[in-house]
Amino acid sequence: MHIMEGFLPHPWWEIWFAASLPFVAYGVSRISRMAREQRETLPLLAVAGAFIFVLSSLKLPSVTGSCSHPTGTGIGAILFGPWITSVLSTIVLLYQALFLAHGGLSTLGANVFSMGIAGPVVGYLIYRATQRFNLYFAVFLAAALADLATYLVTSLQLALAFPAADGGVLLSLKAFAAVFAITQVPLAGIEGVISALMFKYILQARSDVLIRLNVISKPDLLRLQGGAT
Amino acid sequence: MKGEVIALASILVFFVAFLWTSQSGLHEWEGADAKAEGVIEEITGGSYTPWLQPLWEPPSSEIESLFFSLQAAIGGLIIGYFLGYYRRKAGEGN
Description:
With 229 residues, chain A is mainly alpha-helical.
């Protein structure tokens, strides 16, 4: 979903930088507060960041005949919310822009917005809305839709910058979504399943931290553990 | 156990779907990013040239895959280390 270096004309790259900056800045302040007050959550923060690292390095072939990669931002969004996840995504996107020439520095703002903000916001809201039905299904849905939302926003960003001569933004959106969003549907499903599994391992290891982070409630945890035995 | 089974089953379905599509028709399996570049060219009639080039590009696909595997390895190490650390801590508590 990276928009390549130099592929967003003025004024779009500036606009997306301006849109992303406050989010990332607030995320940094949230992380530094967490580092002071809730040190036991830091290893989990590292795990959430590393999860984005791993998943966004996997280029998977999709049934449409092209390759794309999952984003891995769903877990971060569920555990820490979208602000902190935007910081984690920025780190990954910087790595890929500098060492792999995937994405770019001029398009960093746009890429952070789609992968670090839009996707995680969607994932967070979906998780909050569905968690009382079935926890793991909520994680699956949140991660899958966060992934899909990221690619839809990328398509929109490109469509806004490159409206078709006749047909305008809408026609361009269709063309870009055909490349990005359709390819992404099966990958989003896989990402959802893997995220749910990851969430299970985190839950087994440190359910106490998840309660402190307000990710799950104590009664829900007891019910889940009761159901497991 | 149930979670692992579901995950394995869906990865298997994904893999079979890949095998099936790669047998029918010609697919290049190129990156979606590159395909989007093609769409930009189509829409603008080839008039758009990127105004900035990447500072550094991996000189070959071998070196590119080096950095991709590094990325995955770093992530995998961190996940394994901290989940192991948490497990050990949980074990000590009992």
